[in-house]
Amino acid sequence: MIASVNIEMWQAWKDEGDLEAKKRLIEQYLPLVDYVTNRMAIGLPKNVSRDDLASNGVMGLIDAIEKFDYSRGLQFETYASWRIRGAIIDGLRQGDWVPRSIREKAKRVEEAYQKLEQQYLRSVTDAEISKYLEISEKEFTTMLHEIAITTVCSLEDPIREEETETRMSLLVDERVKNPDHKVHEFFLKESLVSGIEKLTEKERTVVSLFYYDELSLSEIAEVMSLSPSRISQLHSKAILRLRGALAKHKDQLTQH
């Protein structure tokens, strides 16, 4: 629920078009931009400017304030966080921040997880993936470090290229959904459930702490008593497994 102290500002902005109220709302929620920016900056290349991420995030915040319907009684912070995150991801996509060679490596690993886990109907080991890719386990570990940057925003990718609806957004409770969205949601959740079941215990923990409890990777490292690089590896493997699980439903998602 929106704090009662903010209701007057929302009413002034939405009902009366008071630009000063809008400005105060932007200033009040700017810390959200810093929070989301700091989380998303983890694992990105050093040449990606945090200031650029924050600038895109501010645009997302303004977009959220312009589109938010306070009368529905929903929590603005949750809605704004998705908008801020989306704006940052759009900026990253436009900057083509991941080299083609890294994207290709990520695709190879994703396809390996998809094929082997469909074949064995269980979570496959690093050794099995390495053997399939015809590389050593040490080389596979190095590859995971390299492709970690491609997994930071993976669940924020659009289900269909021409749309803004994301895989992760369908896990957020919304009050109104048309039948078409229900079909998307059914296939997506079935895929995610199947994929999550195949994750190792540590991978499930990382995904839960990162996406649901919204801890940073460094905070998760402290909680799990592991190094940040190890947490990054677990996150990358979890996301690649989930993308592999989602891939088999891609045709179903795009046909409806």
TrEMBL record:
Pfam families registered for this protein in UniProt: Sigma70_r2, Sigma70_r4
PROSITE patterns listed in its UniProt record: SIGMA70_2
Keyword set includes ATP-binding: no
Keywords: DNA-binding, Sigma factor, Transcription, Transcription regulation
One GO-annotated biological process of the protein: DNA-templated transcription initiation
CDD domains hit by this protein: Sigma70_r4
Domain (RNA polymerase sigma-70) ranges: 216-242
GO molecular function annotation: DNA binding; DNA-directed RNA polymerase activity; sigma factor activity
Gene3D superfamilies: 1.10.1740.10, 1.20.140.160
NCBIfam families assigned to the protein according to its UniProt record, in alphabetical order: FliA_WhiG (TIGR02479), PRK06986.1 (NF005413), sigma70-ECF (TIGR02937)
Protein name: RNA polymerase sigma-D factor
Organism of provenance: Paenibacillus radicis (ex Gao et al. 2016)
Gene: sigD
